[in-house]
Amino acid sequence: MTKNLKISLALVAVVLAVVAALLAANRTPDATSDASANAGADAEVAPADVLVRKDSHRLSTAKDGKVTVVEFLDLECESCRAAFPVVEQLRKEYEGRVTFVMRYFPIPSHRNAELAARAVEAAAAQGKLEAMYQKMYETQESWGDQQVSHEKTFRGFAEELGLDMKKFEADWKDPATAKRVEKDRKDGLALGVQGTPTFFINGQRPQIQSEADFKAAIEAELAK
């Protein structure tokens, strides 16, 4: 075998390996993606009773209920953290006109994502969902993307927020809390969510590449 032929075969093998890896990643329903996760969505409207459950967390509520933004998020996802200030800004800008709903979608490969979601849920039982949700993103760089448990870190957050620690511990470790988080994740999978953050606006998944795209999609629904 000539030297050139060996090099050519090696290059072909590398290309095939890369293609196989990409195809495998695209088949993985729990693969984390960035805000462009919405880019491949079609125009099909998601079932309203699955998209927003009676117990889904509404961060902001519009009285007329005309426009609802739903985000499936992973508290350990860096792209979700990057989207967080944009969502907070839009909540302020559209206060009273747009409902914003938060739903959990912890990625299994993220060591602390599900634990963080349960901590937020346990804080919600004491009226501190938003405070804990914000704290998770504000501190994510210190605990995210690590393969060690940050249970102690999250317990510290609960103490900082002044929660009843006995109740927090009980709710945090309650199987019902884990079931609540998993229910959100399963709904996301049923709706075709493949990565985080994934946004739905009035049941549709618009192509969102920037804050301008996000606002345009909301404005289009408000104008109807």
From TrEMBL:
Kindly give the InterPro entries that the UniProt entry links to this protein: Thioredoxin-like_fold (IPR012336), Thioredoxin-like_sf (IPR036249), Thioredoxin_domain (IPR013766)
User: What is the official name of this protein in its record?
Assistant: Putative DSBA oxidoreductase
Q: Where does the source fall among the domains of life? A: Bacteria
PROSITE patterns xref list: THIOREDOXIN_2
The UniProt entry's sequence similarity note says: Belongs to the thioredoxin family. DsbA subfamily.
Domain Thioredoxin, by residue range, is: 26-223
Organism, scientific name:
Streptomyces viridochromogenes Tue57
Q: Name one GO molecular function term.
A: oxidoreductase activity
